[in-house]
Design a protein that fits this description.
The structure is a single chain. The chain is of the alpha+beta class. The protein has two domains: 78 residues, no CATH class; 142 residues, Heat Shock Protein 90 (2-Layer Sandwich). The protein has seven helices and seven strands; from the N terminus they run αααβαββαββααββ. A five-stranded mixed sheet has the order 2-4-5-7-6, with helices on one face. Strands 1-3 form a two-stranded antiparallel ribbon. α4 runs parallel beside α5.
Length: 303
Amino acid sequence: MELVFAVAVIVLFVLYFKERSKNKKMVSDYKYINSRLLDITNENESNYILVPSDIRVVKETAEDINNLLEKFYGRQIDYNRSQKIILQIFTNISHDLRTPVTVLKGYIEMLYLQSQKEALSPAMRATVEKMQSNSQELVHSVNNLFNMAKIQSGDMILNIQKVNLTQVCHEIILEFYDLLERENFNVEVNIEDKPLYANVDTEAVQRILKNLIDNAIKYGGAGKFLGISLYEEDSHICIAVEDHGAGISEKDKKHIFTRAYTADRKIGNGLGLAISQGLANSMGGSISVSSILREKTVFTVRL
């Protein structure tokens, strides 16, 4: 009897240690699976989970995860393919729109100039002026669409060269001078006379500055202030555009450079800042924003 009891105890101990070892192996395998899932997520690459385990439930879990990954990768490929097609259609449409819209704007401009020489009724004059204003906005929107499509598709070709940013900033400010004066803006320019150079594409920098100033006028217009500064910092040339409008909340700051995002403001199409960031990144630069609600907002371009 004692012998049977001893054998039973030994068997139970063997089974206990065997199960304990199996559980430790299972925990180790699942930790490995979790680690691989984190790696796959962070690496953003198409990988699978290979688990050298003889535990059936672990092998089944790994197989199920790999099946899900295979479906996900397949849908990701389909999504990327459809995105490319949409971008190509987007590019073609915006390109086809540019010519007729530009021609239309030219005719409206001629009509506007002619209307200034003739005696028109107040209603007719207001209509012509509104047509001219809206045509300018339409051309601006179509150009933004075209630029966004080229940036997204990687077709934007930049001519990087040594550029005097002091001169570029002065020229852009002069372009907005009449509008700023008409809107009674207080303009503060902090740009020294000495030239500051950066390796950039001139047209891209001009587009960035126009978008930022246009953004400041539209969204920060209540403060009637526009500041522009040009300075050197840590081997970079920085251009800061400041307004004293309503400001940008912390929530909106996270999305402000996202395509088509306009926060709670009902003005614009949300492309200007996305285009500006895309152009800055293409030149090896960056754009950041700092804002204090109801005090000031500053967009800083680092080149």
